[in-house]
Amino acid sequence: MKDISQHEGRARPGPEEPSVTLASGDERLAEVVGSVAASIGVALHAVSTRADVVAAWEAPGPLLVGQDRASAAVAWQLPARHGIHVVGEDAEQAARWSAALGASVIVVPQGNATLAELLRDGIQEAGRGTVMLIDQAGGGMGASTLAAGVAADAAAAGLPTALVELDPGGGGMDLLLGAERVEGWRWPELASARGTVRELAQHLPALDAVTVVSAGREPCQVGQAARAAVVASLAADHDLVVLDRGHLPGEAVAGMTVDRRVMVIGADLRSLMSARALGMSGATPVLRHGPGHRMSAPDAAAIVGAEPLLVVPHDHRLPRAADVGEAPWVMAGRRWRRACRDLREAVIPDE
Questions:
Q1: φ and ψ at 227, to 5 degrees?
Q2: From the CB of residue 217, how many other CB atoms can be counted at a distance below 10 Å?
Q3: What is the pLDDT of residue 280?
Q4: Whole-angstrom distance, CA of residue 267 vs CA of residue 97
Q5: CA distances (Å), 220 to each of 183, 192, 289, 305, 339, in order?
Q6: Which sequence spans correspond to the domains of the chain?
Q7: I need a labelling partner for 231 at 20 to 30 A (CA). Which of 103, 165, 246, 260 fits?
Q8: What does pLDDT average to in each consecutive run of 10 residues of the chain (351 residues)?
């Protein structure tokens, strides 16, 4: 099995100078806010016309609204938006528009430190990749194998991709991939991670262009903070991060941002009733066919209350791949690989 830690493909865009928009015509306010932004390496774009404010409103990332333009923003009846902060030197005037805009209030210069922290966090959030959690309603549904297949498809499409086995006591994602001999950090080396671990991928094993976080050979305890730090760090450098929850309880993934959660459910009455009892909790169901699991998608939807996104077919080649130490996508058939592609494209479509 070839290990590819450096690969070609669709390159992640190079770092551009981060910027933030201030909707204001107040030159003094723009000067104060601009100095705070510059202190953390962020450029400030001040706009005041309705067209420019609307364009900024529709763009991702934090948006600052000066107290002099807050009333206009309310009058324009712009849609609700995350990440708005009303900024001004008069606390009472700025607070008047907080509720109407669903915004926090930052009074400068007293709140300069708070403003800097909000901008730093907001810029990082806007630039991160997509995080996808693949879960299962019960054991034996092949969630780990499916997660590996989705990650491999994304990497083959040129997307910088990471695959994370969240359970440090799991079977070892590297073993599933036949990558147990590839050097790099596993969870025992990552258990103390906090905040943002810069260039984390350089320290991790990689296989066929997929960066991998796997359980180690020795048991270890990993807290929520470490899991969240590793996932956030990988999302900062990858277009897609695929998470395999394994046997961890649901609360163990608290504290990390997940953009899309998929629930793999066996296509049989018992599995579907179990999923229904657990509740989908915003997850997208994916139906897993196999011996004894042949219920149709419409019948499954009637039980769980949600239409399955797709059906993952049974592939008898996958157990053989594990036996001979090959990654699942190497030996899998066309229909299974197509299901992985369809699932990946549902999250990140091809350009």
A1: -60, -45
A2: 11
A3: 74
A4: 51
A5: 19, 11, 34, 38, 34
A6: 19-126, 129-346
A7: 103
A8: 35 57 95 91 91 90 92 91 90 89 92 87 71 87 94 96 94 93 95 85 95 92 90 90 90 79 93 87 89 92 93 94 92 96 91 67
How many Å apart are CA 250 and CA 254, to the nearest integer? 8
Burial class (CB in 10 A: 0-12, 13-18, 19+), 159: buried
d(CA 101, CA 85): 9
Alpha helices for the chain (secondary structure H): 27-39, 50-58, 67-75, 91-95, 98-101, 112-126, 143-156, 173-177, 187-190, 224-237, 269-278, 297-304, 317-324, 328-331, 334-347
**Per-residue confidence (pLDDT) for residue 81, from 0 to 100:** 83
First to last CA, the chain: 30
At residue 135, the 3 state secondary structure works out as: strand
Specify whether the CB–CB gap between 243 and 131 falls below 8 A: yes
Question: In residues, how long is the chain?
Answer: 351
- Judge whether 19-126 and 129-346 match in fold: yes
DSSP type of residue 49: S
Q: What is the pLDDT of residue 6?
A: 33
Strand partners, 293: 290
Q: In the CATH scheme, what architecture does the domain 129-346 have?
A: 3-Layer(aba) Sandwich (3.40)
Asked if 131 and 259 count as a contact pair (C-beta separation under 8 A), the reply is yes
Which strands sit side by side in the sheet containing 84-88, from one edge to the other? 43-47, 19-23, 63-66, 84-88, 104-107
254: Cβ contacts below 8 Å, ≥ 6 apart: 224
Measured at the CA of 148, the angle between CA 240 and CA 295, to 5 degrees, comes to 110
Check the CA dihedral 338-342-347-351 and report its sign. positive
Residue in 113, 97, 99, 206 with CA at minimum distance from that of residue 161: 206
